[in-house]
Design a protein that fits this description.
single chain; 267 residues; mainly alpha; three-stranded mixed sheet; two-stranded antiparallel sheet; 5 strands; 61% helix; globular
Length: 267
C-alpha cells in the first residue's frame, strides 16, 4: 500500500502547471470558476437561432484550455445521462490519461438548457484541474482496484447521489440517519486504509457536485434573464434537495472518528 502511494503521480500532460494550482483551496476554486466562465463567454456568441452545433463545444473547450489537460468533448456511447464527465486511464500504466466531457449521441445541436449541462460537467473538469488532489485520489483508487467497482457505483448512485426531498426538519434528520447507516454498512468489510480512501473519494465527489450545481444555477439564471426558456429544475438549488452538504459533513465526521480510533490504538 505504501509503495503504491509513492508511485501515485499524475502525468504532466493531464494537469496544470504548479504555478497555476498553488494557493488556498478558495483561491483555486475561484480559478476553476473563472475557467468555466471563460467557456460560457466563448460559447454564447456561437449560438444561432437558439442552437449551438456540437462541434463548436469541442472548439471552445480547446480554446479555453489552450491545449492543456487532455480534455476531449465526445458523444456518450450509452447516452444514459443528459451529460457526463469522466477520467480516462492508460491501459499500459493505469494512470489517468485525460478527461472527457460527454453528451448523448442524439444531441447534434445544443439548446440553452444543454449549455447549462455542459457548464455543470465542465465545472467537474475544472475542479479536477485546479484541485489535482481530486484527480490523484481517483487515480489511486484505480491503481488499488477500489475503482471502478459495482459496489462503489451502487453506493454513489443510490446513497451519495440520491435525491432526498426532505419534507421537514424531522424527515431530514431521519434521511440523514439512514444515509449514515448505509455508509457504515458500505464500509464495514473494508480495511481501515480502504475506508479512509473511499471516504475521501466520496467527500471529493460531493464537494465537486455541490460546486457543479451552484454553477448550474448561476448560468441558468443568466440565461433566463436573457429570455431563454430554462427548465425549472435548473433554476433550483438541486444540491439542497439531495442534502449534499449535510452528507459531506457526515462523511467528514465518520472519517475523523476512524482516524481518531486508529490513533488511540497506536498509543
Amino acid at each position: 500500500m505504501n509503495n503504491m502511494r509513492q508511485i501515485n503521480f499524475l502525468q504532466p500532460n493531464v494537469k496544470l502547471p504548479f504555478s497555476e494550482v498553488s494557493g488556498s483551496f478558495a483561491y483555486r476554486q475561484q480559478k476553476a470558476a473563472e475557467l468555466v466562465d471563460k467557456l460560457y463567454r466563448d460559447l454564447m456568441p456561437k449560438f444561432r437561432h437558439g442552437e449551438l452545433p456540437f462541434d463548436e463545444v469541442k472548439l471552445s473547450v480547446k480554446n479555453v484550455l489552450k491545449g492543456r489537460g487532455r480534455v476531449r468533448v465526445i458523444h456518450d456511447e450509452h447516452g444514459e445521462y443528459m451529460g457526463a464527465s469522466y477520467f480516462t486511464f492508460s491501459e499500459y500504466t493505469c494512470s489517468i490519461s485525460g478527461q472527457t466531457l460527454e453528451m448523448p449521441p442524439k444531441i447534434k445541436k445544443l439548446t440553452p438548457c444543454d449549455l447549462i449541462t455542459v457548464l455543470h460537467e465542465f465545472q467537474h473538469i475544472a475542479d479536477a484541474l485546479f484541485h489535482p488532489k481530486y484527480m490523484a485520489r481517483t487515480q489511486f483508487l484505480y491503481l488499488t482496484n477500489l475503482f471502478p467497482s459495482k459496489e462503489l457505483d451502487r453506493y454513489t448512485e443510490n446513497v451519495l447521489y440520491k435525491v432526498e426531498y426532505p419534507k421537514n426538519v424531522k424527515d431530514k434528520v431521519h434521511k440523514l440517519k439512514i444515509f449514515k447507516q448505509k455508509t457504515l454498512k458500505f464500509l464495514e468489510d473494508k480495511t481501515i486504509e480502504e475506508q479512509i480512501d473511499l471516504l475521501q473519494d466520496s467527500r471529493k465527489f460531493l464537494q465537486t457536485e455541490i460546486q457543479a450545481y451552484k454553477t448550474q444555477l448561476k448560468y441558468a439564471k443568466k440565461l433566463a434573464k436573457k429570455g431563454y426558456d430554462i427548465s425549472n429544475d435548473d433554476l433550483q438549488h438541486c444540491e439542497r434537495k439531495m442534502l449534499l452538504q449535510e452528507k459531506l459533513d457526515i462523511l467528514t465526521h465518520i472519517a475523523a472518528d476512524i482516524i481518531k480510533g486508529e490513533r488511540a490504538k497506536m498509543k
